[in-house]
Amino acid sequence: QQQVKQSPQSLIVQKGGISIINCAYENTAFDYFPWYQQFPGKGPALLIAIRPDVSEKKEGRFTISFNKSAKQFSLHIMDSQPGDSATYFCAATSNSGGSNYKLTFGKGTLLTVNP
Amino acid sequence: EAGVAQSPRYKIIEKRQSVAFWCNPISGHATLYWYQQILGQGPKLLIQFQNNGVVDDSQLPKDRFSAERLKGVDSTLKIQPAKLEDSAVYLCASSYGPLGVIGADTQYFGPGTRLTVL
User: What percent of chain B has pLDDT over 90?
Assistant: First the structure.
């Protein structure tokens, strides 16, 4: 089964610090790597995504770093704020056969940013 | 723009009972997904619709789960009979187009229905 392995399971960061969450995958057919943010009682929301033709993508305080040869990608949250406290999921897509793609999610990282 | 609506938000049932969840996607979104999110895990795709046709139901336990999307708009997911291991949050998501269609494939999730099977 296609898998995306996410670490750490939980992370505690001080306000203003850098939060780093890592994901690794095996399937070289994966070609779209989104990160989702989920607050308690809410559905996941797309935060930032990258395609394998670039090694880095930055949107505000959020950056994805992508290492195609190592089959790893990571989320960096700069200047972490208490409002960033949430569960973060990495995901990847591949063609599941025919023309359809589907998302495979990691198990999630619970980020707590202390004030 | 209104988001993805789901109801009910919470449901508690006994095992072997049946339950149904409803989802109304964002207006104009042709693709609709149902995910199961077990506590401590990422969402797992159960079924994907493109308009009113099923695109992928490979991970749907078809002996007990069923889903439909009549008229290509809202959708229902049913479990009959429920088992203890079905306790989870059931998420509905929609997108303008299917994954792989760059610029149209962002999935927007509803708040989910938390199901507890006793």
Answer: 81
